[in-house]
Amino acid sequence: MSDIIMLQPDSVAEMAVIEAQAHSHPWSEQALADCFGPLYRVYGYQDTEGLLGFAIVQQIVDEVSLLDICVLPSHQGQGIGARLLDALIADAQDNQASVIMLEVRSGNQTALELYQRHGFVETGRRKGYYPAADGREDAVLMNLPLA
């Protein structure tokens, strides 16, 4: 049995473990904790093994920003990211959002393809935005219009 749930601050330690394993430049536990407030929604993907992934969005008026989506590396490629994305898109629509915005590393082909399959389109780039093992890489800005 697996489920998308709304996470609470008591999930931060589990989120930090996933973040540290999945990202080359992970968010700190404090940065994750700071995402529990009135402007944020934090979704989790949980099954009998526990928390396997999460997504964080911030909504200001009718604009939703996808700040982080993260799946435990041992469970990537199983559709968990897509399930989280589906849930947050549906929730954004329920909360009268007109657009979901995000940025993603230009080298993260898997994520780019996931977002494109869900209807996100590239709207711009930030040159050299992210630190990378061999210097810097671009941030690809993407939007999903909802209205």
UniProtKB/TrEMBL annotation:
Q: What EC number(s) has UniProt assigned to this enzyme?
A: 2.3.1.266
Query: Which subcellular locations apply to this protein?
Result: Cytoplasm
Q: What is its main location?
A: cytoplasm
Under the heading CDD domains, the entry gives: NAT_SF
Q: Which domain of life is it from?
A: Bacteria
Mind listing the UniProt keywords for this protein, alphabetically?
Acyltransferase, Cytoplasm, Ribonucleoprotein, Ribosomal protein, Transferase
Q: Which residues form the active site?
A: E103, Y115
**Where acetyl-CoA is bound, by residue?**
N108
Q: Which reaction does it catalyse?
A: N-terminal L-alanyl-[ribosomal protein bS18] + acetyl-CoA = N-terminal N(alpha)-acetyl-L-alanyl-[ribosomal protein bS18] + CoA + H(+)
State any GO CC term. Answer: cytoplasm
One MF term in the entry's GO annotations: protein-N-terminal-alanine acetyltransferase activity
Chain ranges of the N-acetyltransferase domain? 2-147
InterPro entries linked: AcTrfase_RimI/Ard1 (IPR006464), Acyl_CoA_acyltransferase (IPR016181), GNAT_dom (IPR000182), RimI (IPR043690), YpeA/RimI_acetyltransf (IPR050680)
Q: What does this protein do?
A: Acetylates the N-terminal alanine of ribosomal protein bS18.
Member of which family? Belongs to the acetyltransferase family. RimI subfamily.
What is the recorded name of this protein?
Answer: [Ribosomal protein bS18]-alanine N-acetyltransferase
Naturally occurring in which organism (per UniProt): Shewanella cyperi
